[in-house]
Design goal:
285 residues; alpha/beta; TIM Barrel; eight-stranded parallel beta barrel; two-stranded antiparallel ribbon; 9 helices; globular
Length: 285
């Protein structure tokens, strides 16, 4: 039986290469990390010794898929020119760091238009990407993450993701499908019928082949709340039935699935969530 690549967002404390043993000890076969402090604009260049250690650890690891999440400060839709310039510079740096490390997928939130309007924000994002990509390494794929739609954040409607992809044809964008965000945005896949309808809509608007990563988070808030509050898999409003549909969808068996929920002092929550997902997929332990 083909096993799903499952993992967590692991800490890089003490050295970026240390994320691998932390994830391996709980049985992960996929991994997500930050490469820098996600709450600061400035970051030190990657240490070549640490880069070499990371690449060696990745080569030897049973973890088969590795992703980086960009800084939370980056907003490519902002109308503030100073923050827009900082965001473009920071995102370009994120792409270069991924390339240095040999990581092929960079997850990012499209941005918030801050009351300038949806289309204005989408055009701002597209203009930023065109500038960034003109100087960016070509071996890193940008993964647009679905959002919950809090405030003026873009990416909560499938049409918005498709619009960005259409506006920037020079890049092969992928999608990071965050289950909590999609549910909170108003797409109810908590039942088999709902799951089929949501995925059919995504296929029609964006294309399911664009999904390169799932963030596996249940939702504390109801469908359509547009509030981003993660819950452990099966314990929130989506429930085990919704995740069972995803884990049994053969289109996505090879697509990595990353937990973004509290880990527990001894990773007890991660272990519980990983075990549940494998059970829902019908995998034997």
């Amino acid at each position: 039986m083909t096993r799903h690549p499952l993992g967590v967002h692991a800490s890089i404390a003490g050295g970026i290469e240390k994320a691998f043993p932390r994830a391996e000890q709980i049985g992960c076969t996929a991994l997500q990390i930050f490469t820098r402090n996600a709450s600061r604009w400035q970051s030190k260049p990657l240490d070549p010794v640490k880069v070499a250690a990371f690449r060696e650890a990745m080569l030897k690891s049973p973890i088969t898929q590795v992703f980086v999440h960009d800084s939370y400060l980056i907003n490519l839709a902002t109308p503030d020119d100073d923050k827009w310039q900082k965001s473009k510079a920071a995102f370009g740096d994120e792409l270069r760091r991924c390339s240095q490390l040999g990581v092929q997928g960079l997850v990012m939130h499209p941005g918030a238009h801050l009351d300038t309007g949806e289309e204005t924000g989408l055009q701002r994002i597209a203009a930023a990407f065109k500038e960034i990509l003109a100087e960016a390494p070509e071996n890193v794929q940008i993964l647009l993450e679905t959002t919950a739609g809090m405030g003026s954040h873009l990416g909560w409607r499938f049409e918005q993701l498709a619009r960005i992809i259409d506006l920037v044809p020079q890049h092969d964008f992928g999608i990071c499908f965050d289950t909590c965000h999609v549910f909170a945005a108003g797409y109810d896949f908590s039942t088999a019928e709902g799951y089929s309808a949501v995925m059919a809509e995504f296929e029609h608007i964006v294309g399911c082949e664009k999904i390169r990563l799932f963030h596996i988070n249940d939702s504390k808030k109801p469908c359509g709340s547009r509030v981003d509050l993660h819950e452990h898999a099966g314990l929130g409003q989506i429930g085990a039935s919704g995740f069972a549909c995803l884990m049994r969808d053969h289109r996505f068996t090879a697509v990595a699935k990353i937990l973004e929920t509290p880990q527990g002092d001894e990773h007890e929550y991660d272990l519980r969530n990983l075990a549940l997902l494998r059970q829902l997929a019908g995998e034997t332990t």
